[in-house]
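G., before I forget:
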Amino acid sequence: MNDLITNLEALSNAAGISGNEGDVRQVIRPLIENSVDDIQVDALGNLIAYKAGTGTSELRVLITAHMDEVGLMVVGHNSDGTLKVDTVGGIPARLLPGLTVYVGAERISGVIGLEAIHRANRTSKAPDVSKLAVDIGANGQSEAQEIAPLGAPVVFATQFKALEQSCLGKAFDDRAGCAILINILRGEPLPCDIYGAFTVQEEVGLRGARVAAYAVAPDVGITLEGTLADDLPKPPDDADVSPTTELGKGPAITVMDRSYTTPPRLLQHVIQTAEDEAIPFQIKQPGIGGTDAGGVHQARAGVPAITVAVPCRYIHSPVSMLRVDDLRYTAALVGAAIRRLTQDTLSIT
Amino acid sequence: LETYDLLKSLSETPGPAGYEDAIRQVTMALWQPLVDDLRADAMGNLIAIQRGTASDDDAPRPAVMGAAHMDEIGLIVTGIEREFLRIQSLGGMDRRVLLGLEVCVHGRQELPGIIGSRPPHVLARSERDIVLPWHEIFVDVGLSPHEVEEQVRIGDHVTISQPLHQLKHKQAAGKAMDNRASLAALTLALEALRHRSHAWDFYAVATVQEELGVKGAITSAYGVNPDLAIALDVTFAKQHNDSDPGVFDLGKGPTIGLGPNLHPWVVTRLKEVAGAEEIPTELEPLPGSSGTDAWGIQVAREGIPCGLISIPVRYMHQPVEVVALKDIERTSRLLTAFITSLELGDRPRWGDEVNNTGEKA
């Protein structure tokens, strides 16, 4: 289980905005290639690994975890050598000022700064991303174009850090899910056939999962996520004071989010597994966010799907936080739930 | 000393205003082999001397002070709610840039933490571009409420954790370039002057609490009692979202301050020395307070003539301040040349002042 953290570190530090997930694929492939029976990379860039089961179950299980992360993309060059950028996936622009980023495959350092506070018209509103620029120190427009051409990916320069009970790093949404999927694929064969799909383009519309699920044509889909824990103290005027999920309370099971609804029998199966195995769990506040299960459940004639997630604070920001125990319990719950799956679990009654 | 490595060690060392122990120790270790004597005063200013060569039995050797503040802006814990820390500014921290930063909480031990931000999924569109007020900004150190209670107290200070990054064309980006860039220049000047004779005594002072109102400059100038002083600080560099008057090109040399805070004789000498040494500089008009140590030093004791050399920095008071390494080196060269230019009989004078031989100065 310790390799969960080691692998999470390598995954978190890798760069992979939506549509540019190659670095993450390169981290994943060597970690699983000796433990699975086949690896395919499809037309969108999904890495799909097949691990044969022991033969005691006929079921085909698709497990997804998305490789892509939210970030920025170079969309223009200013005459002073700075880069115009736009967001890839949902990042509030107010997070960006004051950050260090890496630009392009060669990880050129750049920074995003505002006018000095001493010289600013005091404003309570953060500037739009179109008003920001990445400063790499280039001398002018043509040098900037050469170093960081249009479309160059820009990721947060955050380095992973393991604390005693917690980890800090970027892109735990969804490198936490990737770490667990790697863990499952490296483990002993399960009763059923496993298709592990490391998907692309989740953050721009669950697009990789959709085609991966079509290709695999599974009996059931399980999506592993790093989901939002919104458990900071709330401002006094906030009407909704319930946290989305909370750190340290175990895996978060989704009943419904903006992209799909979990079939009741599958939901009950996962909850029953947690209770029988004495694994702590929590139910994610319904209706918030979208996950690859939303892409999977509509594939072909429909696939029963569920999302099980590691609660993470501060996702879609330069640095997120998770508890090591939550990561371990999520891996344990998903493993146990798959072992206990039967055709009966999935049938509509 | 290699400028980037020197700047990296100075920039990455914590030293918020009033809590300068760590940065003073790093500076002390750098200065020890370069100076004749070294002490810390009651406020925590680090004061080093390189003795001059002039000897005049009738008068003490004149002294010039070079001051660079070593404190940086920071944060302070003002409350604890569950496991989350409420914070406030220590010095002029810019809360527009805090969300998503890594920090170090200096509690019973040093605790890495982050400044949290609620994800966009739970924010209304109208909420996403609001610059949060202090009471909605929290530090999270990844511990349980019980452990936080054991490790952290109200009043503990918090610093930004930010490694120095090298940008193109020998520019560096990181925290506390204000004023570790000048501290680096002062250190390089000490190194250069170690091998060059100078008539005057040279006091190098790394001052404290500049960001809280130039407190260290006031007390160290009293203690050193120099005949003149040069403050080293940073100024605003031209950047993509600010090219209005009052900003200076990055990488085109330091500025020489001009105005009521700065003595014209010192300004003239700095300009002459820069010209002779072919060091590019710009003049920076400062109609009132320079906002630097020079403002405190000038009114110490019966008054001390001051000069000001400033290094252009982009994104001031943000954790990504950008500086050109050659501007640091030029500042060091300018200060070195200024100090070696001082002869035993030199004293700052006014243009309309008649000297003791009856000639106009």
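Chain B touches chain A through 60 residues (CB under 8 Å). The first helix of chain B runs from residue 3 to 12.

More on Monday.
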